[in-house]
């Protein structure tokens, strides 16, 4: 699976890792029961501390997207299949925003207003 | 999982390949068996089947020797036919031609030599008097070589395999990006079953042979041990693309492994791999045309062409994503790719 990390983006690395996993799940690239890369290997590949990856995995566990089990690593839960239907809607939304010349920051603010945490 | 290119349909090999691979060997094996049968009344019983430094030292009944020839003929020719029958895509490749020629050369050399070894015993009363027939083996080898060269030249020109190559659009990367792609690939279930049963069979028969021999031939046990080790390292692989390049290693031992640095890469493509046609089988593979390959199954894979022209292929799911990331790193390392480690001193802890 693809994990995108840009150290210069200003977003915390562990947030970027978690976001990549979420995106993969929503895209349907991750199916329930699948295992995420071992934290140590992913840390090596991304050239980050292993605790950074573990923090991302813990966040994903807190969201219910993965199960963390000793010896088995991070296993994707059934929740991964959720939200797959949103993908088309999001694509349409982004296309509409582009057409209306609405920037990403504005679009995200609009979503925040509609969907407060 | 997007398929990068369509899987090619099962293709028909040129008729001449079948003539060389199956028809001619059947004729040669048949002639050898027929000649041996015709000689049967004039052969001693038992006949010599093995020669040592001091002359004939292994004996068997003439009929079992003939049965062995027939069995070898059917078994080997059948095996080559079976392998060639699975061909897909463009043909004949160098591998197809080699398989066909080897089938014919094997039949000529083995058929000739075994028949000659009986021929020198014609009219003998006791096979212990069998003369040395080393000269005939050399003649057999020469005949096989000549036949092999002629067959190679008569067969149609080899086409390059892997025509099913697709260009990859590099993933746009921002400077300093350290994205990674990690995938695991397992050997196909059917192939795994074949490998496990073959290794099991060899192990059991070797152990049985060692027990029967009273432990005399115990060094033979090294053979199944080697096979087990080789198979264990050819079932699961981890494929990784990161800022340093492409790494493929066997799981769980982590060995053997192959690491290709971004700076050494000329181009990255996706391919549809046909294990037998392009690599002659599964596992760690090398061919003069295809280069090195880690072949777990048929289907999509990543092809890397190095700056020195060598090729490396690994079959893996979602090859397009991995190839796109690797191509992205190659594209962002212009020229020789002489690039210092990007802020390698700063480890980001999130």
Describe, in plain words, how this protein is organized in 3D.
The complex is a heterodimer of chains A (117) and B (350). By secondary structure, chain A is mainly alpha-helical. Chain A folds into 2 domains: 7-81, Orthogonal Bundle (Arc Repressor Mutant, subunit A), CATH 1.10.10; 85-117, no CATH class. Helix content of chain A is 52%, strand content 9%. Chain A is built from 5 helices and 3 strands, in the order E-H-H-H-E-E-H-H. Chain A has helices at residues 13-27, 39-46, 50-62, 86-99, 104-114, and strands at residues 2-3, 66-69, 73-76. In chain A, 29% of the residues are buried. By secondary structure, chain B is an alpha+beta fold. Helices cover 43% and strands 21% of the residues of chain B. Chain B contains 8 helices and 12 strands. Chain B has helices at residues 15-39, 62-85, 94-119, 134-154, 189-212, 222-232, 275-279, 319-331, and strands spanning 47-52, 55-60, 165-167, 180-186, 236-242, 245-251, 257-261, 265-273, 283-287, 291-295, 299-306, 311-315. In chain B, the strands form 3 sheets. Chain B has a 6-stranded mixed beta sheet. Chain B has a 4-stranded antiparallel beta sheet with strand order 4-5-6-7, with helices on one face. Chain B has a two-stranded antiparallel sheet with strand order 1-2. In chain B, a hairpin with a 5-residue loop joins strand 6 and strand 7. Classes of the chains: A mainly alpha (117), B alpha+beta (350). Chain A binds chain B through residues 1-9, 12-15, 29, 37, 41-42, 44-49, 51-52, 55-56, and chain B through 1, 174-183, 238, 240, 242-243, 318, 321-322, 325, 343-344, 346-350.
């Amino acid at each position: 699976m693809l994990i995108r990390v840009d150290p210069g983006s200003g977003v915390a690395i562990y947030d970027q890792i978690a976001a990549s996993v979420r995106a993969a799940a929503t895209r349907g690239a991750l199916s329930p029961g699948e295992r995420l890369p071992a934290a140590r290997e992913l840390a090596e590949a991304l050239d980050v501390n292993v605790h950074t990856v573990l923090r991302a995995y813990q966040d994903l566990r807190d969201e219910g997207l993965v199960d963390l089990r000793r010896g088995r690593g991070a296993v994707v839960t059934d929740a991964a299949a959720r939200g797959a239907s949103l993908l088309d809607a999001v694509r349409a939304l982004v296309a509409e925003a582009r057409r209306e010349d609405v920037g990403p920051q504005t679009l995200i603010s609009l979503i925040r207003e509609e969907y407060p945490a | 999982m997007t398929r990068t290119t369509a899987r090619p349909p099962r293709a028909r090999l040129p008729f001449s390949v079948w003539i060389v691979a199956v028809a001619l060997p059947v004729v040669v094996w048949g002639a050898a068996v027929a000649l041996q049968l015709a000689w049967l009344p004039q052969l001693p019983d038992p006949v010599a089947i093995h020669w040592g430094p001091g002359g004939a030292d292994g004996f068997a009944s003439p009929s079992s020797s003939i049965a062995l020839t027939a069995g070898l003929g059917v078994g080997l020719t059948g095996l080559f036919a079976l392998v060639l029958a699975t061909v897909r895509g463009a043909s004949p490749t160098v591998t197809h031609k080699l398989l066909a020629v080897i089938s014919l050369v094997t039949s000529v050399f083995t058929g000739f030599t075994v028949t000659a070894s009986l021929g020198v015993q014609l009219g003998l009363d006791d096979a212990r008097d069998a003369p040395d027939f080393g000269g005939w083996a050399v003649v057999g080898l020469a005949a096989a070589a000549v036949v092999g060269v002629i067959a190679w030249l008569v067969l149609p020109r080899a086409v390059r395999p892997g025509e099913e190559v697709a260009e990859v659009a590099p993933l746009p990367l921002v400077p300093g990006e350290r994205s990674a792609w990690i995938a695991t690939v397992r050997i196909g279930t059917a192939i795994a079953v074949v490998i496990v049963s073959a290794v099991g069979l060899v192990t059991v028969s070797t152990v049985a042979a060692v027990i029967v021999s009273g432990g005399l031939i115990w060094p033979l046990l090294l053979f199944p041990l080697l096979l087990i080790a080789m198979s264990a390292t050819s079932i699961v692989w981890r494929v990784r693309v990161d800022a340093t390049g492409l790494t493929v290693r066997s799981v769980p031992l982590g060995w053997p492994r192959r690491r290709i640095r971004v700076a050494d890469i000329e181009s990255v493509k996706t391919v549809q791999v046909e294990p037998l046609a392009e690599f002659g089988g599964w596992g760690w593979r090398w061919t003069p045309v295809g280069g090195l390959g880690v072949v777990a199954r048929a289907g999509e894979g990543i092809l890397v062409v190095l700056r020195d022209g060598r090729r490396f292929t690994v079959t893996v799911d979602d090859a397009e994503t991995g190839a796109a990331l690797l191509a992205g790193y190659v594209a962002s390392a212009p020229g020789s790719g002489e690039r210092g480690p990007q802020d390698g001193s700063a480890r980001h802890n999130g």
